[in-house]
Amino acid sequence: MKVFIEPENKEIKLTGKTKTVLGLLNKLNLRPTQALVIRNGQLLTPDRRLYPDDNIIIRPVISRG
């Protein structure tokens, strides 16, 4: 699975048994409220299943208020 972290334009290749969005966020030390997870232009909820051939975009959510 390829994970692109924006806006840093950082790419990470993950192998292993990351099965859900929540599992991916845990590996990246992020909470579900701290980042948007996107696959094929769709936002994913923490319970969504991930697959080894997925290309995932992670966009951290930052409050600027």
Count the E strands: 5
> What is the spatial order of strands in the main beta sheet?
2-1-5-3-4
Q: Describe the biggest sheet?
A: 5 strands, mixed
Percentage of residues in DSSP E strands: 25-35%
Please tally the helical runs, counting DSSP H or I stretches of 4 or more residues: 1
CATH fold-level topology? Ubiquitin-like (UB roll)
* Average pLDDT for all residues: 92
- Through-space gap between termini: 34 Å
For the record, the CATH class is: Alpha Beta
Report on the architecture of this protein.
The structure is a single chain. The protein is built from one helix and five strands. It is mainly β. The protein has a single domain, classed as Ubiquitin-like (UB roll), CATH 3.10.20.30. The protein has a five-stranded mixed sheet, with no helix packed on it. The longest helix has 7 residues, at 21-27. The relative contact order is 0.31. The model has no long low-confidence stretch (mean pLDDT 92).
Q: Which features would summarize this protein structure in a list?
A:
32% strand, mainly beta, globular, single chain, 1 helix, Ubiquitin-like (UB roll), 5-stranded mixed sheet, 65 residues
Topology:
Layout: E1 2-5, E2 10-13, H1 21-27, E3 35-39, E4 42-43, E5 55-60
Parallel strand pairs: 1-5
Antiparallel strand pairs: 1-2, 3-4, 3-5
Task: Provide a short characterization of the protein structure.
By secondary structure, the protein is mainly beta. The protein has one helix spanning 21-27, and strands at 2-5, 10-13, 35-39, 42-43, 55-60.
